[in-house]
Give the backbone structure.
Amino acid sequence: MFHVLRRLLLASVLATGGAQAARADVILTFNQTGPIMEIPFGHPDSPPVPRSQGLVELSLVFSDSAFASGVDWNQSWRVGPTSSLLDGLVQIYLRVSGVTDPFSVNLSDFGPPADFSIDRASRIAITTEPGGLPVGSVFYLFAGLTQVLFQFDGTSAVSGFLAGEGSCNGAYVTPRTGPCTFNGTLVRSVPEPASILMLGIGLLALAGARRLKA
């Protein structure tokens, strides 16, 4: 029975170590609040009305050292000068659904595509103070049709704009206007190893109780 206990202990230590490694990532997740607001097509002076559907999602994954020290990121593809200064950005996830053609992209999609016939553009321009929330923007153009822009002001509040064909018709997104708008908040999360550790301790206790009973 001792070898079983030893294996359980080793498994719990390894699981906790893996969770602590994951803890190195700081995740900032955008949570959309309220519906996407759309200016009626053909009526640019009309007030925006809520859409019945539409969801915009974004997550930024920092390394813990980058988040603690602050970042100054600027990467562009076909939007201004191309550069690549994204040290400490582990991953970025962006997804749009229920507005135009749905799409989802990650960090690898923000660089020059392998297939240059793909009509897309992107930009990440973000700065943060040590341990602070981002200031700047994230922009993506999908298939030459759908554009999405997130704007950050150093607080948990996030605003954004959408443009595309079929829905959210209108001119290209600019920093000040767009046929569809959305708002939300940034929520910070850090993967915690505590639940895995408690599971390992529970398994050890159960195995120990069975051994004593035997």
Summary: Confidence is low (pLDDT under 50) at residues 2-23, 172-176. Residues 24-188 form one domain.
